[in-house]
Design brief:
409 residues
Length: 409
């Protein structure tokens, strides 16, 4: 029979320790195979793990892993406008043999763009990056603009640190719950809003708002009236002409580009013209223009050897795309899902314009997007003002709709 102590340990092993270890192993195996956050993709099994409703919860992990897992030729960086619109399956990219990953994240600030660019450049295959610059996310939110906010991507650590993080998640009860939800969702064929393998958020066609006017109102109302949006910018910044914005993250991206020989294409996303009116009504349009001037100045000052310039494009304002009529009744728009989120088609058109590819999307619209420099900036603003006056003379509802939503402080 053996000593009592040995018998006790044997019973403890059989009845407690082995079942606990087996349970942990089962949880880890389920989490790794189902992979509800798309962090360690092994296999996609239709009806088992193809619909991942919790993937967006940990999209920061998804993208930091995917951006170095494959050997990408190009990367798109920026906030939700990029995440939802820059299409890696753009036929023009495919025709040129360009393997692009969409590393956009909702709320992706410039500091996070810089982190992701460094990660994307590390494997040594990256040729260029398309970087969406958000005025709203670029601006400081406090009286201390030099103090960086917390990043969801830090510590964007060593390989060993990430392995530890992934291992901890593999046995996490919360990830196991997400795995079960993934299995149920997949079995029942429910579509989930999640990132595709190329990083694009699968908005189209299943998650396009049926009522565009309501979606426009919701987005513009938030930027007009919430204290943490444009009004926060006014509180944080002194008068136009005296504020200098923090361009440390921008310079970080330029340094990465020079170090790895990467081309950078910066652009202001094509917010709908109605949303441009929200900036004017709140009073941040002068700051927007000052910000754009400063970005152009930094790009000119940081130009590489032999006068190499970093491209800067402005797709916002008033043009044949951004002035698309918002339907009064439910119906699909060509270029927009709401006033700040544009369609895959608009994203492909912007990408083609920046990269100099043939126009496949614009159907004769020739005023979408303009390359700008320090020297051309004032002429660019003058043209925008002239176009705005002409557009509003025919479409006064662009202003009326925004004024209807505005609640003055």
């Amino acid at each position: 029979m053996g000593p009592p102590r040995h018998r006790f340990l044997s019973v403890l092993m059989l009845r407690v320790i082995v079942p606990v270890v087996a349970a942990f192993a089962a949880v880890a195996a389920t989490n790794i195979v189902v992979d509800p956050y798309d962090i360690t993709p092994i296999v996609t099994i239709p009806g088992v793990n193809d619909s991942k409703p919790r993937q967006l919860d940990r999209a920061n992990l998804t993208k930091t892993r995917a951006i170095v897992r494959d050997r990408w030729d190009a990367v798109a960086l920026g906030p939700s406008q990029i995440e939802r619109s820059i299409d890696p399956d753009n036929p023009a990219l495919e025709d040129h043999g360009i393997h692009l990953y969409n590393a956009g994240l909702s709320g992706e600030a410039p500091a996070e763009e810089a982190i992701l660019l460094r990660r994307a450049a590390a494997p040594g295959t990256l040729k260029f990056a398309i970087v969406g610059l958000s005025f709203y996310l670029y601006m400081p939110r406090t009286k201390d603009p030099g103090k960086p906010g917390p990043s969801r991507l830090e510590p964007a650590g060593t390989y060993e640190a990430e392995l530890e993080e992934d291992a901890a998640l593999a046995v996490s009860p919360s990830q196991f719950a997400a795995s079960i939800e993934t299995i149920v969702n997949s079995f029942k064929r429910r579509r989930s809003l999640q990132h595709l393998k190329n990083g694009l958020l699968n908005v189209e066609p299943d998650f396009v708002p049926p009522d565009h006017r309501a979606a426009f109102d919701q987005a513009d109302d938030a930027y007009l009236n919430l204290s943490e949006t444009y009004r926060a910018i006014l509180r944080a910044e002194p008068a136009p002409g005296r504020a200098r914005f923090d361009h440390a993250a921008l310079r970080d991206m330029l340094a990465t580009a020079r170090r790895h020989g990467i081309e950078l294409y910066f652009f202001v996303p094509p917010d709908h013209a109605r949303h441009c009116e929200t900036r004017r009504l709140v009073g941040v349009e002068p700051l927007f223009r000052q910000w754009l001037r400063e970005v152009a100045e930094v790009l000119a000052a940081e130009a590489g050897p032999a006068g190499r310039r970093f491209a800067l494009w402005d797709f916002s304002g008033y043009n044949g795309v951004t002035t698309e009529t918002v339907p009064a009744a439910p119906g699909r728009m060509i270029w927009y899902n709401d006033s700040v989120h544009f369609t895959y088609r608009a994203g492909r058109a912007a990408t083609d314009r920046m990269l100099g590819f043939a126009d496949r999307e614009l159907d004769g619209i020739d005023d979408f997007g303009e390359p700008i420099t320090v020297e051309s900036m004032e002429a660019h603003f003058a043209r925008q003002d002239q176009t705005r006056a002409r557009v509003l003379s025919h479409h006064p509802e662009l202003v009326a709709d925004v004024e209807r939503l505005f609640r003055r402080p």
